[in-house]
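User: Hey, quick favor. My workstation is busy. Could you predict this chain's structure for me?
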Amino acid sequence: MTTSEGQRSIGFLGTGSYVPAREVSNEEVAERVPDITADWIVRKTAIRSRRYAAPDEATSDLAAHAARAALADAGLTADRIDHLIVSTSTGDHPQPPTASIVQHLIGAHDAGCFDINAVCAGFVYGVELARSLVAANPGSRVLVIAADLYSRILDFDDRRTAVLLGDGAGAVVVGEVDAGHGLLATELSTRGDAQDLIKVHAGGSRIPTTAETVAEGAHYFTMRGRGVRDFVMTHVPPALEKLLADAGFTPADVSCFVPHQANGVLLDELVGRCELRDATTARILERYGNIGSASVPVALDDAARAGHIAPGDLVLLSAFGGGMSMGNSLLRWAPPREPA
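Assistant: No problem, here it is.
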């Protein structure tokens, strides 16, 4: 576990998010997915709508919108950013990195840029990398963006995945904050023995793209839902309990819980299992569905802008997804600062 004890206080200077304009209802999804109804989707997932990107929008476009919102919230211009990290498993291209495209779109021309892919856990991984960069480079600022565009890799014959996923992006600016605030503790972990639970089988070096793989639908997103649920319930609650205990807190101390928005029924169970019922749980899933690595930062931005997080509040982030990876982070919400 990484802790900030005895170190410079590093946290979020601003948050931002973006979801595409097109709202897709359960009724519309049910017309495309066999053997389901709109009510079935609500009962199984709690999702009522999601957003799909326009034909001319790519992951970098969503990311750039979220980045601009976070910069505005922090009172900074893009030229003040030293590093730019994009977490995505649905990048614009195999290469170049989507981060380099985002850099160009927003004008962060001097920033060092790179992508990471820890699937839905990627935002917390990106934040921890950003914290390390700021700690090593005092006074620097890092823009962390999580963006995913899943609507283009969904198999609408697979009701396990087609009803869940949507598109969106969230971002934070990471930098130095007032003493006693910011990131307090972070735990990153991966269980590669469970990596088959969530997968896109083709399109990489093991199974390159061919006419046959495209015809077989091997480029679609796949997930073994029951296995994912069992993984989350087995591994996430004890990980959060340990993170809080090691940092000297209990679940009762948490003001706001910001989990990955995987499935509404799963979230209800997770909140109960982690004894976080007294905390405000940031939820966007009903409106936006599961938006991959963007889920946590979009939910965080939504909660902050709605006034559900105040300076001094203890905020718990929990992201989990393909790999299978987990990223959990605890922070003390910082008051706004005047840009240096």
